[in-house]
Amino acid sequence: MKRQRFYGWTTLIGVMFTYAGMCGDLTYAYGLFLPSMAETYQWSRSLLSGPYAAFIIVGGLLGPVAGMTIARFGARLNIMLSNILAAAGLLGMSQADSIWHVYFFFGLMGGIGIAFGEFIPVTTIINHWFVSKRSLAMGLLFASGGLGGLIMPPVISWIIITAGWRTAWVFLAGIHLVLSVLMCAVLVKNKPEDMGLTPEGYSREQAHGGQSGPSHRPVYQTTVDWEIGAALRTGVLWIIMGLFSMVIFVMNLLTTHQVAYLQDIGFSPMASSAALGLMLGMSIIGRLLCGILGVRYEGRYLAMFFLTAIGLGVIALMNAVDIVFVYAYSILTGIGFGGMVVLIPNLLGAYFGRLHYPKIVGWMAPAVTLLSSFSPILAGVLFDITGTYFFPLAITAVLLFLCASAAHFARPPLHTVNVK
Prior knowledge:
By secondary structure, the chain is an all-alpha fold.
């Protein structure tokens, strides 16, 4: 009989479009509008940082619900419905003339979009389809987010300059429907079993014989599916949670305030937006690098390397007296952030299996959110008090180097509990 074609790579392309849209249209876009909207309504930066914090908080606190709905209804339906809502929120932002409008359209509607349509469902799909090449597939998935971050900031900045920030929000709503809804509907399937296939890296005996993954891997891969309670009792999950929180803490702060900071110290609006685009574009290299290296090297050592790179990048940003320092910041931070974005879900899948992955990540999300979401407000408040971004950037650099040291202890958990 003719062997059925493996559909996982087509599904990967579909979720790559989805993730590129979520990053380019939502997560990395808000900070580009901050200076223009603040000038239009004379709002302070700390006031405008609030909706972005709400966006992150809503997305994180709904994680457990998202994990349960993904387990019950599948990731594909969650992605499509939530991104329709997110696109409606982007369209609503074009008509915002009060701060509560920004909270509602971006903070609430956008937050629901990322909770049910971004990190948890797209990584769940990859975790279902890929095992031995999970790291590579994750690298390609998150590289698409970096590509969205590379392309969209300069485009958005150009539209804001030439046509105004309201027109730019309308543009984002339209492109979001195409990338994150239509492409998902056409290309994505939830898991290989739905098509009579087995996950990449599985033999048919492993798929039907109770094993959770292949043996004799170059790097650690669990052979059991950990229940949520058992996973939460392992110290390594809490270390991974802390590293994840730190990465999101840093990126929330930078994507919200970096453009304004660079403009404050004398760089042009286009150069400031291009620096953000370069950082997110360089994250493509970090994501692909982690995807390739993750097949051969243990994740905790890669985490130490990538977190150190981010810390050095923040130090370069603090000393950005010349464009060379801005380039150094964009390159180091981009590569480090890109690597960590791939590494976290890959570690979770490798350490805890595929069956309960969306629920485990879903229950992690509120803790990660509470630890990371206040960074835009913190930076805005410190700026309003001191007139400079030195203190939030210095605090960030110190925390990054501490986390790089802690990553050494993120060893695979021992199977000494009752797991299924």
